[in-house]
Amino acid sequence: MIDSQQASEALAEINEIAWRVRQSTIYTLSSQMLIMWGALVFAGNMASFLWPRTGGYIWLAVEAVGIVGSFAISAYSYPNTQIRAFDMRMFAAYLLVLAFGIFCCWFGRFTPRQIGTFWPMYFMLFYTIVGLWFGRAYVVIGVGITALTLIGYFFIGDWFKPWMAVVNGGGLILGGLWMRRS
Q: CA-to-CA distance for 161 and 51, rounded, in angstroms?
């Protein structure tokens, strides 16, 4: 026979293990998404640095490929995890976030450099908020990329786009690799 304290300790231990398994599954799925989006963001920043007149088209292509890739990662991982990492609700939420960001940029009449600063910080806000529920890795990624973005905005001159390729794209890739290890 076990007493009530031993039973409580056993249940607490089971809950801790369940939470760690859930966080590990979420981190595994997130790492794949972060690495994919990081590579796309890196490519988008470098391409828009090399061909600035086509930046709008480049970013439309980045977004389209990213959305398709997110659905593909979700579909591929679902049989093993039974978690939809990206479904129609996530797609709708993403479109709402994107639409609000576009509205802010249009209404605010940002310069290209300000737009290049706004978007990473805007998306990192959501990473940081998600981290309050799903793990500190998201918070570290969000705050770290935001801080480095602001450093680039204020102190990096004409090389801001390559800076952002490394900071934002590279930061997402490193964050994804870190999450894979966790």
A: 11
Long-range contacts of 64-69, Cβ-Cβ distance < 8 Å, separation of 24 or more: 65/40, 66/36, 66/37, 66/40, 67/91, 67/94, 69/36, 69/37, 69/40
Residue with token string 């870190």:
178
The pLDDT tens digits for 127-171 are: 999 999 888 889 999 999 999 999 999 999 999 999 999 999 999
Q: Residue 182 has what pLDDT?
A: 64
Is residue 174 within 8 Å of residue 29, measured between CB atoms?
no
CA dihedral 94, 100, 102, 105 (to 10 degrees): -140
Distance, in Å, from the CA atom of 166 to the CA atom of 39, rounded to the nearest integer, reads: 10
Q: What is the pLDDT of residues 131-142, one digit of tens each?
A: 998 888 899 999
| CA distance from start to end of the chain | 37
**Collapsed DSSP state (helix, strand, coil) of residue 156:** coil
Measured CA to CA, the distance from residue 128 to residue 143 in angstroms comes to 7
Q: Which two tokens stand for residue 139?
A: 């918070």
- Residues in the chain where the model's pLDDT stays below 50: none
The 3 state secondary structure assigned to 27-90 is HHHHHHHHHHHHHHHHHHHHHHHHCHHHHHHHHHHHHHHHHHHHHHHHHHHHHHHCCCCCCHHH
Q: pTM of the full predicted structure?
A: 0.85
